[in-house]
Amino acid sequence: MSEDRIEAGSHVPQLGDEPASAVNPTTADTPTATVLRELNTTPGPSVLLIHGLASSSAANWVATRWVRSLGTAGFHVWAVDLPAHGMVRPVPSITRETLCAEIIGHARRISSDPVVAVGYSLGAQLLYQCAASAPSRFSRLVLGGFSMVDRLTAVLETPDFLVDPAQRHLARCLVSDPFHAYAAVPHQPALLFSGADDAWSTPGDHAVFLAARRRRRTWESEPPTEVHVEPKRDHVNVVTSKRVRDTAVRFLPGRTPGASHGA
Fold this sequence. Notes:
Blueprint: E1 6-7, E2 35-38, E3 46-50, H1 57-62, H2 66-72, E4 76-81, H3 96-110, E5 115-120, H4 122-133, E6 138-144, H5 152-157, H6 165-175, E7 190-195, H7 203-216, E8 225-230, H8 242-251
Parallel strand pairs: 1-2, 3-4, 3-5, 5-6, 6-7, 7-8
Antiparallel strand pairs: 2-4
């Protein structure tokens, strides 16, 4: 398994939009399969980002200017790289439960307070599961490209989509531990975003999410949920939308009032 590292200094861009390698790695007592990266040093509330399958913190959040927008708005940005992604070594076997336990541990490590968090696609499903199982660790959720249905089997059957063997192996591991959206439903305020041309995250998925929150709630009032569907965007390029970024930043607490969120 990969070393458990907090990669400080990776906010310094090198090799295009790839974050710099670790300059101050620290090893935890128990090695983990994921890597936690510090993507800026802005003194402000922490936000935790979780990328999707066949992506990385660099591709999902740095190259698309999310880190820049969040930093300008006053957030200290951290991101998790999953196994076999973002220069993280693959693992022979892994479950969603293990990944979620590590992500919850990272959230605890970066702040003693509940953190706001953003997940995309597989990262959104993992964040949903984390927030439901450890509600005291997460205060607000942004779930992009999210589906209440486990679509990994369809991903594995899609030609030319997931070509990296180690990433395909990770997907197969998670297929054997499928996403069960109704097992526990998070109660935190949530923003859902997707592209209008995204066949894997549709208005139907949003409606099912809202219905699940209404059915399973044990809290006094229904938590606020916002939905943003970006025109002319799909599952791959919706994260590049400035309007989507700005919508997410406005939804998260702790931003600098009137700040410009970048181009």
